UniProtKB/TrEMBL annotation, chain A:
Matching Pfam families: Guanylate_cyc (PF00211), Response_reg (PF00072)
Guanylate cyclase domain: residues covered: 163-295
Family matches, as SUPFAM superfamilies: CheY-like (SSF52172), Nucleotide cyclase (SSF55073)
Signal sequence, renumbered to the chain: none
GO BP term (any one): cyclic nucleotide biosynthetic process
Sample GO molecular function, one term: adenylate cyclase activity
Keywords noted in UniProt: Phosphoprotein
The name this protein goes by in its record: Response regulator
Modification sites for 4-aspartylphosphate: D56
Family annotation (PROSITE patterns): GUANYLATE_CYCLASE_2, RESPONSE_REGULATORY
Listed CDD domains: CHD
From TrEMBL, chain B:
One Gene Ontology molecular-function label: protein kinase activity
Keyword Transferase: yes
Coiled coil: none
One GO BP: phosphorelay signal transduction system
Protein's UniProt name: Histidine kinase
Domain of life where this protein originates: Bacteria
Keywords attached to this entry: Kinase, Phosphoprotein, Transferase, Two-component regulatory system
Modified residues (Phosphohistidine): H58
Boundaries of every HPt domain copy: 19-111
Cross-referenced InterPro entries: HPT_dom_sf, Sig_transdc_His_kin_Hpt_dom
Length: 348, 111
């Protein structure tokens, strides 16, 4: 085994067993802590960082089954690998441990070779799982990472009411032709940093980035009170930040960025789409198409932020907008009533 | 009693894998803790506490297996599986077996 030394918590009400297990674990090169019953173990787990729990079943106060149940319902401790070490009688009890999420079962007296193999395999699994969690955090949004961890990965869909926001830098391709590749990426990174901040601080999540375009979702996977208002606030904040960025760029004689936003509210289908090996949290439906069309239309309409009537209806009165001529978008059977957000000059 | 009092190979293996000193200390821990476990068993029997009775019998069985004391383990296991009996639990028999086991284990640890 590589440099893997684990922090192992041993829970056993019997003194001889505690001493023996602790010594066995230490001989294998790991660090051992001990608890006399489930209740003490739970408070030690909450306070400390352990890699593996070696759990006895028959204990006063809080037995092993109760510990397994408590771990299962605790989001922070759910993934902690548990090896049940017990001389409890009956196959039914062993099955129950496995059903309650125990990684493995070693009968007492514990065979040292078996213990070594189980501990190493558990540590390796935990390392992989921790790595997966880190990657998930890096490549998926917090909301999706949480959603995945809580509900598990299942390809499938839900129909939810949400607000979709599209934004895009106008003529970015033409603009980037005159820029060094590093400068293009740096500009995109600045832009994305601002956009992500505006979206997440308003309770939304960015779920698609393509080139200079971005799609954000408000109200899914977690519902928020007024997804339309949150999306419009995010767009307004983004506009204000782009204005600030443009002031800086003007001083360096760089051309101003022009950004368009399209916002639509309604039913969308969300879920994990793809294959088991590679899937993304995605969202499709008429509302998504409409937001995308509205974003494209900002250039024609000479407006920064356009929204559909479902979004506009949900806005509080102090957020002012004006109706602009209706448009018949491709793929829609009816003309769409469109509103433009009144220019916002400053944000709080 | 069909089970032997001591299975010396179990203790030998314990001493070999964990160290002779540690094995001897572990025996000492058992000998000082076992009277408490027997007291728990008695109290549970007297108070009609089936869970406590099962748990104490389970603990004695578990330790007896660790040191290689098959006779004590078998008696304790029978009590664990049988649960609290209607009449008098076989406590005197268990205590007698424990007394003999303690002497034998102490001899092994001191060897």
């Amino acid at each position: 085994m590589r440099d893997a030394k684990g922090e192992i918590l041993i829970v056993d009400d019997n003194k001889v067993n505690r001493l023996l297990m602790a010594r066995s674990v230490e001989i294998l090169g790991h660090r051992a802590s001990v608890a006399e019953n489930g209740q003490i173990a739970m408070s030690m787990l909450v306070d400390g960082t352990f890699d593996i729990l070696l759990l006895d079943i028959e204990m006063p106060e809080m037995d092993g089954f109760e510990v397994l149940e408590a771990l299962k319902s605790n989001a922070a401790l759910r993934d902690l690998p548990v090896i049940v070490t017990s001389s409890v009688e009956g196959l039914g009890n062993i099955v129950r441990c496995i059903e309650l999420g125990a990684e493995d079962y070693i009968p007492k007296p514990v065979n040292k070779i078996l213990l070594k193999a189980r501990l190493e395999s558990c540590l390796e699994k935990k390392r992989l799982h921790d790595e997966q969690k880190r990657l998930l955090k890096r490549f998926a949004t917090d909301e999706v990472a949480r959603d995945l961890q809580e509900s598990g990965f299942a390809i499938g869909g839900h129909r939810v009411s949400a607000t979709v926001l599209f934004c895009d830098i106008r003529d970015f391709t033409a603009m980037s032709e005159h820029m060094a590749p590093e400068a293009t990426i740096e500009l995109l990174n600045t832009y994305y940093a601002l956009m992500f901040e505006a979206v997440t601080s308003n309770g939304g999540m960015v779920n698609l980035i393509v080139g200079d375009g971005l799609m954000a979702l408000f109200g899914a996977p977690e519902p928020i009170e007024n997804s339309a208002q949150s999306a419009v606030n995010a767009a307004a904040e983004m506009c204000a930040m782009i204005e600030m960025l443009n002031e800086e760029r003007a001083m360096l004689n760089d051309p101003a960025l022009e950004v368009g936003f399209g916002i639509a509210t309604g039913e969308v289908v969300t879920g994990y789409a793809g294959t088991d090996a590679r899937a993304t949290y995605t969202c499709i439906g008429k509302t998504v198409n409409l937001a995308s069309r509205l974003e494209a239309h900002t250039k024609v309409a000479q407006e920064s932020i356009l929204m559909d009537s479902a979004t506009q209806r949900r806005l509080p009165v102090e957020i002012r907008s004006k109706e602009i001529p209706a448009i018949h978008f491709k793929g829609f059977s009816e003309d769409q009533t469109i509103f433009a957000l009144e220019p916002v000059t400053s944000i709080d | 009693m069909t089970e032997p009092l001591i299975a010396p190979e179990v203790y030998a293996e314990l001493a070999e894998t964990m160290g002779a000193d540690f094995a001897a200390e572990l025996v000492a821990t058992f000998l000082s803790d076992a009277p408490n476990m027997i007291a728990d068993l008695k109290a549970a029997a007297a108070g009609g506490d089936a869970d406590g009775y099962r748990r104490a019998a389970h603990s004695i069985k578990s330790n007896a297996d660790t040191f290689g004391a098959p006779a004590l383990a078998a008696q304790a296991r029978a009590m664990e599986l049988g649960g609290l009996p209607e009449g008098d639990p076989p406590l005197p028999a268990l205590e007698a077996t424990y007394a003999e086991t303690a002497v034998a284990l102490k001899a092994l640890a001191d060897a």
